[in-house]
Design goal:
The protein has 345 residues and is an alpha+beta fold. The protein has 4 helices and 20 strands. The protein has a domain of 142 residues. The strands form 4 sheets. Strands 15-16-17-18-19-20 form a 6-stranded antiparallel beta barrel. Strands 2, 3, 10, 11 and 12 form a 5-stranded antiparallel beta sheet that branches. A 4-stranded mixed beta sheet has the order 1-4-13-5, covered by helices on one side.
């Protein structure tokens, strides 16, 4: 007597109903925990602030907090002119870039109040030296004999200007103000929750006097607003994954036979679209086509899944673990409904 089980068409409806019922329960439970995690994550993000901190004499960490896109736009209106704002928005559109953070870093150089000081050095003797009728110099201190030079520096002792005073001339003052080159170094990091961190180093040089020496600009404050990462559709985002699937054979085409009603195996799939904060981190993926091996049916298995839900997103220690309801058929003529679970590559 043969042990072969033939799946009759009359069994299609009850098996399908049972499979769909189990699938719905699994999806409802997974969806509940995913939605709860999403709410908890949004609440936590709104209250999360990275505080401003001075790490060294020349390095600071910016303050960062979450905000809405409207907050960023209002901040830009305060920080830049209308012309610059329009140019910025236009350039973002051309680049296909989305505004995610806006910040301002304020540095300062302390003022220096000059006191009475002597000249740094003197120039050559002025000839002839103007004298009074009795032979004395016109100025008591003899400043008409030689031009006087003074190098002005800021509080960091960086050269600002060199001033010359020649009392023997009708226009005695001349000066040279040195050019300054400013440099801002910014290191951008990204936390696990998507929040950016900013570290800044502000310095300047005086290339005409000492181009190899850098002077530190003290940072008074540095604050950034960042938009919370919003999920959106990526219609063309092909991603390869692997699944272990389990389900049931619900229908057999004419002439097809099956050793078991169980469908069990592994497959490799390609999803075409996704929905999430970026292309790598998704809440679910769409339009998955797969091919694999049905161990129970001992047949090549082809499958299609309209979507795959990322149950790993709300779970600790796991990032991308997808549960996938799928419709499959094998080369023996069997039609099956199954649920797959597996990571993306």
């Amino acid at each position: 007597m043969s042990d072969t089980v033939v799946v009759k068409n009359g069994k299609f409806l009850p098996i399908m109903v049972c499979a769909l019922a189990v699938l719905m329960v699994v999806l409802i439970i997974a969806g509940y925990f995913a939605y709860k995690s999403w709410l908890d994550e949004n609440t936590r993000l709104r209250n999360e602030i990275v505080e401003f901190k001075k790490l060294t004499d020349s390095l600071v960490r910016s303050s960062t907090k979450w905000a809405t896109k409207g907050d960023l736009e209002e901040q830009l209106k305060v920080l830049v002119t209308k012309e610059d704002l329009a140019a910025l928005q236009s350039d973002l559109r051309k680049l296909g870039s989305e505004l995610t953070a806006v910040g301002r870093t304020v540095g300062y150089l302390n003022r220096k109040v000059a006191s009475l000081e002597a000249s740094d050095h003197e120039g050559p003797t002025t000839q002839p030296v103007e004298k009074c009728a009795d032979g004395r110099a016109i100025d008591v201190y003899g400043y008409t004999q030689k031009p006087q030079f003074k190098l002005l520096t800021d509080t960091k002792l960086a050269s600002l200007a060199e001033v010359q005073f020649d009392a023997a001339k009708g226009k005695p003052w001349s000066y040279e103000i040195y050019k300054r080159e400013f440099q801002v170094v910014t290191a951008v990091g990204k936390k696990d929750d998507g929040q950016l961190t900013f570290h800044h180093n502000l310095t300047y040089t005086v290339p005409d006097k000492d181009k190899d020496k850098r002077y530190v600009i003290d940072v008074l404050s540095s604050d950034f607003l960042q938009v919370e990462p919003k999920s959106r559709m990526f219609w063309l985002n092909p991603i390869v994954d692997a699944n272990f699937f389990a389900g049931g054979r619900v229908f057999g085409f004419a002439g097809s036979e099956a050793d078991s009603l169980l469908s069990l195996g592994m497959d490799v799939g390609l999803s075409l679209s996704s929905f999430g904060s970026d292309k790598l981190d998704s809440w679910f993926r769409l339009f998955r086509f797969s091919a694999g091996w049905d161990i129970e049916q001992r047949a090549v298995h082809f499958g299609f899944a309209p979507f795959a839900l990322n149950i790993g997103k709300p779970l600790p220690l796991i990032t991308n673990l997808y549960i996938t309801p799928q419709l499959g058929f094998d080369h023996k003529g069997g039609l099956s409904v199954s649920v797959g679970i597996g990571p993306q590559f």
